[in-house]
Design goal:
This protein is 41% helix and 18% strand. By secondary structure, it is an alpha/beta fold. An eight-stranded mixed sheet has the order 1-2-4-3-5-6-7-8. Strand 3, helix 3 and strand 4 (99-103) form a beta-alpha-beta unit.
Length: 248
Amino acid sequence: MTRVVLAAILLVVVAAGRVHAQDFEREARWRAEVVPGLVTGEAFDIPGPAGRAFLGLLTEHATDPAKTTLLVIVHGIGVHPDHGIVGRLRMDLADKGYATLAIQMPVLASDAPSDRYEALFANAAERIASSVAWARNRGYRDIVLVSHSLGIRMSNAYFDRTPSPGFRAWVALGLGAPYSSTFAQAPIVPVLDVYGERDLDPVLKSAQARERVANASGGRQQRIAGADHFYAGRESELASVIAGFARP
């Protein structure tokens, strides 16, 4: 094989790696877009892995000076912490008496397929752990994790890596696969497994297996009638279900 051919192969490999590398520039662009237009809540830079801070949107309930319960909210694939159902939940749940912290999860380029995100799960788990430490420094002691779609798999990676997690409970919204074997064999927090009646096929097909894990954890499964994967038109019902489960 000639040096020219080897060099060409090397360039292809390097280019492919760049295409699917963690996209910090994309995170920075979203921060620049989201923070100036923030109406509800306050933006913070949370210390993260390798010394890189990431965005957190904290919404504290005005009548909750004791800081009793904080809901850390993890978004799905390739978006930001004020996007879609996550942006709606961080505000609706604050209206129900909880503080919320929606955090920026690691992202790839916009055209990256979902299977490439597995390489980012370790970073995601570290960000979740950093969020717990940051919240405790602000005085929160009762913390519940809420995650949507691919964010559930990132959250599952956190639990698999953390024998003593910083969360009292976990709300999983629209998981399109079974829970990891490690978590399924010994769930370490109660799980509220939620999905929509009109959810994505992988979510619907894995519902029965997920229900067994949720029940074994001391939690339960909840189907939202008429809801799709993003709970369009069912946001208020979803917030009520989460609020009821998260109550101490």
